[in-house]
């Protein structure tokens, strides 16, 4: 198992800095997901680790070796791209073995590695087929197998499932999770799909504008987002946000908004609350309880196991996740409560958690 260390790295194109003094530590054997919207720099970071882009400033270490200026082939890693990039006139076996033949490995060793990868990825019965005779999921498994046969310590994935339909993505997520559990290799995975990130990652690094906003376990980034961006980017539907202000008096802090208030006793403040501080209170759709705030149901979205309801009061619309067995219709009144145990507070001006 091999760790990755990105140290004060800057990537610039002329005057434009895509990544600016970014640092990241990936633990040996970890499955780290780089998550963020398009254009946030996550693929640039991955390609730079792979050696496909040059560093403007900083260093990249893989294990105990400084690979900042090493060629991709000398970095001890393998990469799987969004496109399958299979050789169309080669069989599955030939696609898996081609890179090893070019590297000059003995035939017996090539066969051993290819057969082992095929068994692991359930490709054994497909070995003589051409790519045109494979499904999208099977082609992506071949692309993954082509990386596996190299038997390196680090695997990089650049949105490998984005071209697949929803069911295939689900199936291959499970396969990738099993693969990591068996290989225990270091894996870095780029996606803009938060479901992929939450289900695959040991830790998630959430990026925006070339900056890592938060890095933590799926539980940490979901339950304790460090700022408003992370809070609203993670979660479907996204976190509900209510504008208001704090009243701090007599050793008590209260969130106040348009005629109702929430006692914040028990909330763990990241920074000391200030009286009259303008804030946004966030709570996820599944954490809203039954209570005294009446909402008018506008839209009902049945999703099988649960139901997503959009309801409003006083010009504010809430997303509420309910049990799928509960019957509810547009026009119904839905009384809710906001339990402080599931609340996040953000400074209205900076967006930082308080």
From TrEMBL:
Span of domain ABC transporter: 4-234
Pfam families: ABC_tran, OB_MalK
One annotated GO molecular function: ATP binding
Keywords linked to the UniProt accession: ATP-binding, Nucleotide-binding, Transport
SMART domains referenced in this protein's UniProt entry, alphabetically: AAA (SM00382)
Keyword tRNA processing tagged: no
CDD domains the UniProt entry points to: ABC_MalK_N (cd03301)
PROSITE patterns with a match to the protein in the record: ABC_TRANSPORTER_1, ABC_TRANSPORTER_2
InterPro entries: AAA+_ATPase, ABC_transporter-like_ATP-bd, ABC_transporter-like_CS, ABC_transpr_MalK-like, ABC_transpr_MalK/UgpC-like, Mo/tungstate-bd_C_term_dom, NA-bd_OB-fold, OB_MalK-like
Source organism, top-level taxon: Bacteria
NCBIfam families: PRK11650.1
PANTHER family: MALTODEXTRIN IMPORT ATP-BINDING PROTEIN MSMX (PTHR43875), OSMOPROTECTIVE COMPOUNDS UPTAKE ATP-BINDING PROTEIN GGTA (PTHR43875:SF1)
Similarity field: Belongs to the ABC transporter superfamily.
Protein name as catalogued: ABC transporter ATP-binding protein
